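Internal tracking record. Fields below are filled automatically when a chain is submitted to the structure queue. Please do not edit lines marked as system-generated. If the sequence contains nonstandard residues, flag them in the REMARKS field before resubmitting.
Queue: standard
Priority: normal
Entity type: single polypeptide chain
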Amino acid sequence: MRWTRQLRLLAAGAVTVSALFAAPAAQAAEPRAGRLTDLVNPFIGTENEGNTYPGAAVPFGMVQFSPDTGHNTGYDHSQNHVRGFSLVHLSGVGCGLGGDLPVLPTTGEVTQTDYAQYAAEFSHDTERADPGYYKVGLKTGINAELTATARTGVQRYTFPATDKANVLLNAGQSLHRTISTKVEVLDSRTVRTAITGSGFCQDTKPYTVYTITRFDRPFTAYGTWDGTTVTPGSTTGRDGAYLRFDTTRDRTVEATTALSYVDARGAALNLRAEGGRSFDAVRGAAHRAWEDRLDDVRVKGGDDTLRRTFYSSLYRSFLAPNIGSDADGRYTGWDQRIHRAEGFTYYQNWSLWDTYRTQSQLLSLLAPREARDMAISVIRIDEESGWLPKWGYGTVETNIMTGDPVTPFLTNAYQQGLLKGYEERAYRALRKNADGVPPADSPAVGREANREYLADGYAPYIAGRPHAKPGDSDYDHGASATLEYALSDAMLGEMARDLGHDADAARYAARAQNYREIYDGSTGFFRARDASGAFTGPADPALSEGFHEGTSWQYQWLVPQDLPGMVDLIGGRQAANDRLDSFFAYDQLLQDPAKTAREVWVNGPYEYYNADKYNPQNEPDLIAPYTYLSTGQPWKTTDVVHAALTLFTDAPTGMTGNDDLGTMSAWNVLSSIGIFPVQPGFDTWGLSTPVFERVDLTLDRRYYPRGALTVTAPGTSGTDRYIQSARVDGSSYGRTYLTTDALRGLSSLSFTVGSEPSGWGTSAEAAPPALN
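SYSTEM-GENERATED OUTPUT FOLLOWS
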């Protein structure tokens, strides 16, 4: 049975939604009556710096209601004290962000105001997490349950019998730096807060979150606190409030907290629009919303662990970006003014350096309506603030990460047909971004090294250069910034050509070859160049400098716009394959794929440097396994991809590094299906062996007229994993890639697999073509 498509609109729009059941930790249950949500384990990635959260959210919801245990990004499965259940979390970020308004139930007198001191101990045996629902039994004897709608968090606490059951609302502490806070007790059931914070790896411009909490019954007493001073009976305070209830007879307290990034009126409006229902009703709606979302991908085959890791990854892929507009369409733009979204939903939270490689493509395939609104939101950021984003949180730019990730993000939306009516608006913003540098009074850094790049063909590596603005600097990572600028130029050149901007197209196509400017023929690798043009840093490519979160070995394949040209640079196909084999430790991989992945490739969640091997935990290498499609050895792509997939498990440690708002999860999903965006920002999908015998995709008919695509690989397994032949709608197909236009016209993609590599896809004509 399929749930109505209207639930999808409810989950992404102005109406309430809520939770479901799935199995805790690594013991996910078999789905009952085909419930895919039972295969989702939200605890995956909550240990070893995966930085996911187990709490309650709906697809793309503004609220992520989840426990914080003391880890800088929220929840760490290895810790056993809850400091509070807070409203805002981002899945897999690497620095503290969110954690606004941690709420914790307690009993007795309120004597502590530091949540590290009043934190409650718990055991994982009492935890349960399902999509849209979280529950834990605290050792204080209190049971806490969380669920969510798009813009509200709903909580239910079951207390012991006592006349001093408290709910603490801590406005003054969060995962980021709190600048100013205000708490108001409005009446016997309602509390309002305003929280202004800053931060994410480095300080940013401040942003403000407004909340309003409505309890299902009056409290018997209340008070507020400023610092460590608690004032009973006070209706206003700076840092927090406590609300007291008599639970000697009725032991349950429910409350709904609404969120707004606009103002207090917006929070109240969101409460009216999405509140007013019981906890169980909200939980049930969230369950249905998630079931409907996951049901667009039905897999057959594979063992229990494989299916659990797959659906858990699919779940995490739909957690962000997040709704930023209130129920009335109002939102705070990056000019810090209030605007109204008309005809679309405004989204925020843009981890673009990560998501442009995998997650944005997955959403364009499985959630094109939301992906269109996301792209429009990014265009609005440019029109309202003067510049496109790089890494945006809430209503501000953080400038975290480097390069030009917004270009392939938006050109992907264009190539996937998501910008109808917005093509020229998007192009104008991208052209300005590609050809200029934001002024000093703009919070954005954009292409910070663009003046030198446009003049000399490369971004210089200038170690220790003072940062003019908060965030990362392209000058600190000149070599990788050059590669990313060139990639973006290639994608923008394709868009310019399609739109008839021929002169621009030629100019960007020429700039797409700038990757050659940092190629050092004496070493055979990319190297950073200083301001004078001299190569700088160690000649050893494993020790190279000027690459962001990686080495020259790991960035050498980041030329998706011209892999044939790159292959020629390093000596041709045989030389490229030899280097790829060394990079992936291919001989060891064939002997023991899982051991190679864990002991040769992976050195720790943040070990980005001093390495000559593939790093499947981080973004620069996400496309690298698919390079073999361009070197005439496509079977090795399958070998490497399937080895990397063993790093995903259904345990709390089962993430390969930070999830980065669904980036790594989307890699898992796409690679498991057997189609992967090998030219991010364009419409090319590389092919490899699926891990499932059958995958049925339900697609939006507005963008995919056939409405469905079935991918089959009968008998696929750890041994029978090599493509012998491929067919599209029954006709033989010899290429290792498909375009989006081709996907739109297909109803079936089928692979015949065997135990030995074949000649399928090995000709030069079978490889994804160079662009421009």
